[in-house]
Design a protein that fits this description.
Pdz3 Domain, T15H9.4-like, PDZ domain-containing protein, four-stranded antiparallel sheet, PDZ_sf, alpha+beta, single chain, 20% helix, seven-stranded antiparallel sheet
């Protein structure tokens, strides 16, 4: 999806960096406090490998700490001691590294868990379970799904981290980027169908992109309703959708289109010329020759040059001597 930066207001950016989110969207039950214990070798951790915002949200950590740490976790304690500033964090890490002994690093963080299971009564009208069953064996099954409400937060310098595709008026998550800084990390799976974004029901990719972009620009937070296959039949259909690729028209350069148009105009004015013969090499009259001649018990093949072709593109020629083919 689009990688263009969002035009969020400076006030909104400062609020997010400080860890202040709308309380009507990010409720207290979505915020979990957890402690991670990490086995560290001597001389670690390196304070330079950690970066935080002014609100103590982690924006950079060593690669071997992801997981358990997640992008923009709110750092609260280091080995049980509260830290409220970047300087306190760096001093704590420096003391641990200076001992030059193997040790366990205990980090207490506050994390927003924004995935909630919803029942069938809360799903939008474009959900599969609300559509009538079809006798078409290729139609999408109407059973075998779970539904979730996902709240995505556009943290400082984060990225969306998904690509989507449309099939049968349904938009599916085609690929995910679970790297550090991905907004959708841990929240969306491959094959999830996006049914609704905020107040907009989703039917195509363009609407999906517009709804995500406008929602993030408005308040930095969007709410998705997703449909996730949970049974064998629905999973099989989703896998077939992900493996299906539409054939795109090849891009033809402008100068090639103009050259073809000029050549067509020439043919319409002067007529079409005779096509070149399939025989190649020195010009010689083969009108009385045969493909195979027999002389003194020797078979001589007369070769006819041809262009290289793909055998898979050939089709069988019917036998017109057979009355069935007439």
């Amino acid at each position: 999806m689009s990688a263009e930066p969002l035009n969020m207001s400076a006030e909104k950016r400062r609020a997010f960096r400080a860890g202040r989110f709308p309380e009507d969207i990010i409720t207290k039950d979505m915020i979990r406090e957890m402690t991670c214990s990490i086995d560290c070798p001597p001389g670690t951790p390196n304070p330079k490998e950690f970066k935080v915002t002014e609100g103590m949200l982690l924006t950079k950590v060593p690669a071997d700490m992801t997981p358990p740490l997640e992008y923009c976790d709110h750092l609260l304690k280091i080995n049980g001691t509260s830290v409220t500033t970047k300087k306190e964090m760096q001093e704590a890490f420096f003391k641990l590294a200076k001992t030059n002994k193997p040790h366990y690093l205990s980090l207490t963080v506050r994390r927003i868990i924004s995935v909630e299971r919803i029942d069938a009564r809360s799903v939008p009208s474009n959900a599969s379970i609300k559509k009538p069953p079809s006798k078409d064996k290729y139609a999408k099954p109407t059973k075998g799904y779970l539904y979730y409400k996902v709240v995505l937060i556009y943290f400082p310098r984060s990225k969306l981290g998904i690509n989507v595709k449309s099939y049968g008026n349904v938009v599916y998550v085609e690929s995910t980027d679970c790297s550090w800084g991905s907004t959708t990390r841990r929240f969306l799976y491959l094959g999830d169908a996006i049914l609704k974004i905020d107040d907009t029901e989703i039917l195509d990719v363009q609407t999906t992109q517009s709804a995500i972009r406008s929602g993030f620009q408005k308040n930095g937070i969007i709410t998705m309703i997703i449909e996730r296959a949970s049974e064998q039949v629905s999973n099989k259909f989703v896998r077939s959708v992900l493996s299906f690729n539409k054939i795109r028209d090849p891009f033809v350069p402008v100068d090639v289109v103009k050259s073809c148009a000029d050549q067509l105009a020439h043919y319409e004015k002067h007529g079409f010329v005779e096509p070149a013969p399939i025989f190649k090499g020195p010009t010689k009259d083969y009108s009385s020759a045969k493909r195979v001649t027999v002389a003194q018990n020797l078979v001589v093949n007369k070769k006819i040059a041809s262009e290289v072709f793909n055998p898979d593109s050939l089709s069988a020629v019917p036998d017109w001597n057979d009355p069935k083919n007439r």
